[in-house]
User: What shape does this take?
Amino acid sequence: DSVFDDRNPMIAQMSPPSGESNVGTLPFFSVRHDEQMNPLSFNQPGATNVQFSETDRVVKYNYLAPLPALAEHTENAPSMVDLAGNTATGHSVTFNTANGPDFANPSVLDTAFFNNQQGVALNPVFQWDFSEPIDPNSATPAGVYMWDDVTNQTIPSTFELSPDGKRLTVIPSQELLVLRRYYQYAYNLHDLSGNN
Assistant: This one.
């Protein structure tokens, strides 16, 4: 069924997030909209490496020139319209840059469970601690999920990043079964500079 769309799209999340500090001077910006956007409407002067994902709900981009080091930066969301021509509501983030670019990949510092651990509770809370903040727009159901080795199906679960972006928590939405092998995946996670 078709409906008349006259609602302005909202920006659900933008990264690097406001209040973040020590962001590399070549950050990879990401903007998550609450609906599909028209990629041909992307307008952000100077932006390069523009990428769309998740059915054109997420746009990622960066700039060729680095941001000033050790400075406060405000980034306004790119001007875009949805498929009905409605303009996205304005949004901006303000953060502080580091003394240079960040080229280091984030690493896992610790996990709540180790590989092939036995005797896991039927209602576990899985956690990963990372060496630096993770871009919240890179944590998606396509990359963060649980897998049942017997049924070869994804187990419904919820996940979230901590406010500082350094801890990922995954909770299965149903009780796990006894004597069953499960796998927990966290793929395609990027730091605020796009390193993974």
Observations:
- The first strand starts at residue 11 and ends at 15.
- The chain has no helices and 13 strands.
- The mean pLDDT is 95.
